[in-house]
Fold this protein.
Amino acid sequence: MKKLIFAFTVIISMTVEAQNITDAVRYSTTDLNGTARYRAMSGAFGALGGDLSALNVNPAGSAVFLNSFTTFTLNVENAENEVSYMNGFSTNSNTDVDLGQAGAVFVFNNRNENAAWKKFTLGFNYNKAASFEDDFVASGTNSRSIDRYFLNYAQGIALDNLVPFEDETIGELYSYLGETRGLGFAAQQAMLGYLGGVITVDNPNNLTEGDPGYYDLNSYVSYLSPGTYDQIYTYAATGLNGKFSFNFATQYQDVLYLGLNLNSHFINYDRVVSIDEVNLNASEEYVFFEDRLSTLGSGFSFQLGALAKAGENLRIGAAYESPTWYEISEETLQYLESDIAIVDPQVINIYPDYKLQTPSKYTGSLAYLFGPSALLSFDYSYKDYSSTKFKPKDDPAFMNQNDIISNELKGASEFRIGGEYRIEAWSLRAGYRFEESPYSNENTVGDLQGYSAGLGYNFGNIRLDLSYDQWERDSNPQLYQTGLTDRMAIARNNSNFILSLSFGI
């Protein structure tokens, strides 16, 4: 096999294709992840505490622990997608096994029984915040071609920029375009489409290469034959958004608990998108276009929380989660093949690091204890996705994207309810959650509904918990951000089996 030697180029000119509203929502959204007990009750733990994943909701919850404690959680996730596109329909499923949570809390009791501050706790917890594991295929017959993607980028770019010199390779030209201010990613897409025989220059006066003004032409038309196009669009992604929380909490008398989390976040996201298109009116005419994206990011946030006893049976909780301030780096790699040519620059585009500020989150919680045997808990959270910001905010491309985010996203509410019933050493649990769409039109991404159930057994110093949760959400994403913007309809069903082992330390 031929060894590929990749060139690298830094994109100076930022573009909406690299960072857009889809990325903003992806990195601002979290899943229901954590211990089996937490997930069996759909995460309704803001007024309860006493569970390591409850710290994700309300950091005061660690002070509810009576003794030092540790938990490890294994998660088996299965995602099923039903995809409709034009006249086509497909289904697929993907299973992933990983460590969903691991952490410990250390309890330090005040030996002075008359002291107002009864104890403090120190905790550390890792929690998978969101999974990016996903893949699907959308196939159907379309009257619109991938040529529209390349045409949208090409208009206004002089032909002289898209044609390599006699001694210049395609990779060298691709690098030059990416490094040149005012050209950048858009010119690279135009070059791929032009050299790949997907688009051609609009030349109404039939100028030839030797004529003055020929290389100044900057309007383009499709080179493909008219017809209908059989398209197969493939999406495959891996990675996750992880969160490490360093927790401090304290108990005041027997009625009030206060807590603080300092959170470190990381993003690891790899995605491959491709389209395979054949003209049904000219079967020898085809286009295959592949785009690879690799994203790494790190971030910081903090949380504040309080939990109070209101009488013998009622518990009240309130928590604030700050925005997460991310710094993100991205790389792309592209390839195009048609019946006319193969355009393989073998160049990795390295974008300048950028910053993303996700929305803050507010949570109010209530729980009622029916003696020592049963409880019912409710959480309400609010997150304003329209406040998400790309930075630096004075970058023209980011200004445009931030305007789009402000106009197309909205505040979203989330409701969680969970219950637990104890029979001696056994615990039976169930829960329900509802999460509103972050989009104003509620069509690009719909509302989420989820159900959960589980059981646990307490051996004394060791506890074993098992749960199952399932959620459904519909979405209608575009194939591409520009040009070929036709939408797919995706119905996603996600189910999880979670096993947690906990023991005193």
Notes: The CA atoms of residues 274 and 290 lie 4 Å apart. Residues 1-6 have pLDDT under 50 and may be disordered. Residues 396-408 form the longest helix (13 residues).
